[in-house]
Amino acid sequence: MQTSSTFSTPEINEGFSINKHTPDKKGLQRIAHNFIKDGEVYEQEVGSFLLDWLNEKDHIVVQTSGSTGKPKKIKVYKQHMVNSAKATGKFFKIEENTTALLCLPANYIAGKMMLIRAMVLGWKIDLVPPKTNPLDTVYKQYDFCAMVPLQLDNSLNRLHLIKKMIVGGGPVSEHLKELIQGVKTKIFETYGMTETVSHIAARRVNPKKKDKKDAHFFKALPNITLSVDNRNCLVIKAPQLNDQTIVTNDVVELKTYKKFLWKGRFDNVINSGGVKLYPEEIETKLQLLIEYRFFITSLPDQTLGDRVILIIERDYDKIAYLTLQEGLNNLKTLNKFENPKEIHFLPQFIETDNGKVQRRKTLELVINKTY
Fold first, then answer.
1. What is the C-alpha to C-alpha distance for residues 177 and 284, in angstroms, rounded to an integer?
2. Could you tell me which residue, 70 or 13, shows the higher pLDDT?
């Protein structure tokens, strides 16, 4: 357990470089100051984090994404971050002299951890702006990269530049999974949160044919034990990443203490006619039917308790509405409780700062008709 207020920052691995510079601790501090003084916004964020990492405190303060509640600042111990970096290196078989691309903002845990992995494991990391199409100005091949699903979706024609990739910050859609089947890049969807210092489990989303049988199960990283509580929500015991056992609100099907199938958020569960429905499972069934961003939620119903509704991010169009209604009625994978009783069109969803949909606030727009 962490008790000291000081922390001896690990020596920077000799293999580490950042933008082709190979600094020691003082050199990295100079680079950080230069980023803050003269860099673009994303470089300033990197510089601020590097100075936080190199100081003598045993922790840093990070902000959660706010996708399932209010964004909050939490304390994360540096030793836990080092442990996480080492676990990632072991799990994905990425060691010293790995070439890595950072295209995520350094003000959230995912971007911070890419930098820590580079320093601890000895990677040669390059920075590019964290935009939706990060590979557009990249002309060399990298061993490793982390992206969010939107970035992956906008990088399909340049994936040959990345050998191995992790994707987090939200689920990879069924449509996007279809598009990446057969590509040479090994692409993994990750599961984790700020409290677990980035990901604690991953699954390959474009597996080889022989590995497809269990591909939908997430597999835990080293030194992590999984269980469920009486709600069937995932419980994570990861003493090297957090001193406390973490009880999540993620409903899962637990296969072993190392493998699970994610079903959805307990907060989002809909009880319709006495049947428990998981919006995320319904959304998976609808993804090939709807090309716009959408989500499933519910409204109170006198007969059913809750009635399922579909909210789509686009302007209302009568023809599109009728076509979609017909498609839903003909979709054999939907049962009668899952089929949306209403369809609502919104010009724009409400998002967190890092682009995640805030379901409850967006639903309030529908309820109050303030769009």
1. 11
2. 13
Amino acid of residue 111:
G
Q: Which residue has the tokens 């590509």?
A: 183
Q: Is the pTM of the predicted complex or chain greater than 0.90?
A: no
Residue reference for tokens 């990446």: 180
Token pair 């601020």 is found at: 48
Q: For residue 85, which of 57, 114, 109 has the smallest C-alpha distance?
A: 114
Residue 273 main-chain phi, psi, to 5 deg: 65, 30
The span from the CA of 16 to the CA of 98, in Å, is 9
8 residue type, one letter: S
Q: Given phi > 0 = left and psi -120 to 50 = alpha, else beta, which region is 282?
A: alpha
The secondary structure of the chain in percent helix, strand, coil, rounded to multiples of 5, reads 30, 30, 40
Phi, psi (degrees; rounded to nearest 5) at 356: -85, 140
- Residue pointed to by tokens 């490793």: 144
Record the tokens describing residue 216, joined without a space.
């939908």
Q: 């890049």: which residue's tokens?
A: 185
